[in-house]
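ok so I'm stuck.
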Amino acid sequence: MRYTARDIRQQQFQPTRFRLGFDPQEVDAFLEEVADDYEELVRENNLLKEQLAALEERTRAMEAREKALQDTLITTQKVSDELKERAQKEADLIVREAQLQGAKLLEEARQEQAKLTAEIGALKRQRRQVAEELLATLSMHQRLVEQGLAGSDAG
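replied:
not stuck anymore, here's the structure
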């Protein structure tokens, strides 16, 4: 059974048969001191309980904030990882596209080179042919001039 300060103050003791015992005023004074101390302890205990409840509430709030921060951190890390992965994929795609474009440009340049080489070869053949025709024409004109000179010397 829990006693209150009031219970302590109202406690009555039965006198012994021979009236031997303690001085009632002294007992009452002692009980009054005990009751006062008990009231102070009850007040202090209630105050401590209130403080404990407030601290527990603050702790729960802090734990909730900590959990929210941890969840946010985890979400942020996931988003960061996803962004890195997406950026890597985009970079890989850009590199592949650049490689394909480079290969296409290189093939076009090789085809252009082959075309130009063929044109140069055709132009060289054409030049040789023109030079040969020119030599033939000059040779024919030289013979005609020589024949004309030979005919005028004879005549």
